[in-house]
Write a structure and sequence with these properties.
Elements (H helix, E strand, L loop, with lengths): L1 H16 L1 H4 L6 E7 L7 E4 L2 E5 L1 E7 L6 E6 L6 E5 L2 E3 L1 H10 L2 E2 L6 E2 L1 H9 L3 E3 L6 E5 L2 E5 L14 H4 L11 H13 L5 H13 L2
Parallel strand pairs: 1-12
Antiparallel strand pairs: 1-4, 2-3, 2-5, 5-6, 7-10, 8-9, 11-12
Helix pairs in contact: 3-4, 6-7
Length: about 210
Amino acid sequence: MKKRVLLLLFSVAIALSFSSCATIIGGAKYNAKVQVPGHPNATISVDGQYKGQGEANFLVKRRDADKLAITVQEENCEPETTHFTKKAFRGWAFVGTLVGWTGIVPNTYIPLPWGVAVDGITGAWWKPDVNEKGVSKIDYDHFLYTINYKAIPKMDLKTDPKESSKEGSSSEGQSKADKLRELKHLLDEGVLTQEEYEKEKAKLLESD
């Protein structure tokens, strides 16, 4: 009995050391391709690490497909981070591993699904969910992330907030309602503080 246990442990150790065999159908990582249409100069980073400009290619652990945060930033514009929080189960890969990478415990007829065990540890059962906005499949090992970057210009808070809110557009012909909506947008984007927003809103409401 002791000998069988030792043989079983040895078999599992060997299986783990050859995880690339158990994860042969796609592996424990997939290739992510990121594109930022209309912004060829925008830098792309993941977890603070630079990945490319306008377009990037890098590897992602399959088990982390639902924890991917891609940050895009263009010069003189605010950075924008898109979070991808969904992943899907690779059922066909699971079946393939179960059928193709199941052995027998030495000196017994007990099946040893070592491939399934390794896939479970490495997270090779997972893939990005193509139902999530911005995600599409190129093939089983390559997925495309399309980022809709708004490229909002950075605002200089050292200048008068009211003047900053008019940057990039003409104030002529703007109604009071338009100016209030513009201020609210700046508040929502974090450009203006609540105090600055209330101050400028009061000025607008008091103006003729």
